[in-house]
Design goal:
17 strands, alpha/beta, 34% helix, disordered N terminus, binds pyridoxal-5'-phosphate, globular, 4-stranded mixed β-sheet, Aspartate Aminotransferase, domain 2, Aspartate Aminotransferase, domain 1, 451 residues
Length: 451
């Protein structure tokens, strides 16, 4: 992925330098003069980061210093429209004032005590999240990968204790193209060579089948299958949307075979796809749900695994845990983040503006683009790699004040904060068409927008 799949690139500054004329939609001019001290300049900061940080990312060459709503600013005070929102973690907009207030209020009160003790913040957060999702219980963690690991443990536990799978044999079926995080267990069942290469040996007990192919899922089930674990839309794989009805069929396959359906909605959940949860598009309910990213309001890493008592009551004191999971600072922020989603109707905004953005993008005509996929404010544009890399498109967008990030080499993702407004989408699309026009001219191909 992106955050995630940088390893195919050769180095931090491998991208060619760009010199693009800035047109009418250029970002606001800098109010400050560019930084004079070379060590504090963008190039200086990037050099220091490269010197001291392991090169497991390939960031775009921009150094951000502040954010507000859908905008970010670099240290020369150049403004950027954020069309990526930290891989969907900043759905509430940068430095959302209600979240800043909740964070600072709680930071002055109580931050971390571990779950060796009760606090007054975890209970209301857990109650709210269970009410919102309809599950009996939640288990709080921090990062997405930790919540996925929790789901895997819960599914195996259920498989042994309730389905009576012989010890050590429980299997989980996963989809090709999956992205569930970066722990060794999780990358062990990735189909991406670059996520796995050099990190084995891996945990056994996972079976990969093609995403979107219900028959393949049915065929992979054995008496030892305890769960199917999938993303309802594969985000890092390039916003890959399965055929309509697939998830419903997978639900039925699970029911027929006494297998748990566990959905990783770390990226798609909490309004990103135009429903509170992506599974609502198919009118089904999973047995286990994994949330993260936007749950922390773009302020804190907060994740959770949710399920009903039959699964959750199998956890015993000592069987699982995290020093930071469910801490009062995170719980206070997450509780407020959930309340903002509801108060500000961000799910409806994602639905309405996602449809608007997709319909405008559908009018773009150019051989540069080979596919367009989206649901809610979760949109992927696939480029022909023979003509242009998604990285180049993102670099050109950045130069013109719009931030996005390629996923794999061919897909540009637009997943802005859900607080975005229509004129800001228009601004992003205007810049995107300028960039496409420019690349089309360079490559001597056409680019038009149908009226
Ligand atoms: C669907 C999905 N699952 C899991 C993860 C991992 O989350 P984290 O990076 O917080 O560990 C991601 C991150 O992009 C994701 O998109």
């Amino acid at each position: 992925m992106s955050a995630n799949s940088e390893s195919s690139h050769t180095g931090f500054l491998a991208a060619p330098k760009l010199s693009i004329g800035v047109k009418s939609n250029a970002p606001r001019k800098s109010r400050r003069s560019p930084t004079a001290d070379p060590a504090k300049s963008s190039a200086g900061i990037i050099e220091t980061e490269q010197k001291y940080c392991a090169p497991n990312y390939l960031p775009l060459p921009v150094t951000l210093v502040r954010g507000k709503g859908v905008y970010l600013w670099d240290q020369d005070d150049k403004r950027y429209l954020d069309m990526m929102s930290a891989y969907s973690a900043v759905s509430h907009g940068h430095c959302n004032p209600r979240l800043v207030a909740a964070l600072t209020r709680q930071a002055e009160q109580l931050t971390i005590v571990s779950r060796a003790f009760h606090t007054d913040k975890l209970a209301p957060f857990a109650e709210k999240l269970c009410a919102l999702t309809g599950f009996d219980k939640m288990l709080p963690m921090n990062t997405g990968a930790e919540a996925v690991e929790t789901a895997i443990k819960a599914a195996r536990h259920w498989g042994y204790k309730k389905k009576h799978i012989p010890g050590g044999l429980a299997e989980i079926i996963v989809a090709e193209g999956n992205f569930h995080g970066r722990t060794t267990t999780i990358v062990g069942f990735s189909s991406e060579v670059e996520y796995r290469a050099g990190f084995g040996p891996f945990t056994p007990g996972f079976k990969l089948v093609p995403f979107g192919d219900a028959n393949a899922f049915r065929g992979a089930i054995t008496p030892s299958t305890c769960a199917i674990l999938v993303e309802p839309i594969q985000g890092e794989s390039g916003i890959r949307i399965p055929p309509e009805g697939w998830l419903r069929e997978v639900r039925a396959i699970c029911d027929e075979n006494n297998v748990l359906l566990i959905l990783d909605e770390i990226q798609t959940g909490l309004g990103r796809t135009g429903e509170m949860f992506c599974f609502e598009h198919e009118g089904i309910r999973p047995d286990g749900l994994i949330l993260g990213k936007a749950l922390g309001g773009g302020m804190m890493p907060v994740s959770a695994f949710l399920a009903d008592d039959e699964i959750m009551e199998l956890f015993q004191p000592g069987s699982h845990g995290s020093t930071f999971g469910g801490n009062p600072l995170a719980a206070a922020v997450a509780l407020e983040a959930l309340q903002i989603l509801l108060d500000d109707d961000l799910v409806a905004n994602s639905h309405r503006l996602g449809a608007y953005m997709l319909s405008r993008l559908q009018k773009f005509r150019t051989p540069l683009i080979t596919d367009l996929r989206g649901r809610g404010l979760f949109i992927g544009i696939e480029f022909d790699p023979e003509m242009v890399s998604a990285r180049e498109v993102c670099e050109r967008l950045m130069t013109r004040g719009v931030l996005s990030k390629e996923t794999h080499k061919t897909v540009v993702r637009f997943a802005p904060p859900l607080v975005i407004e229509q004129d800001q989408i228009d601004q992003a699309l205007e810049t995107f068409s300028e960039v496409l026009a420019e690349i089309a001219a360079d490559r001597s191909v056409t680019f038009t927008v149908e009226s």
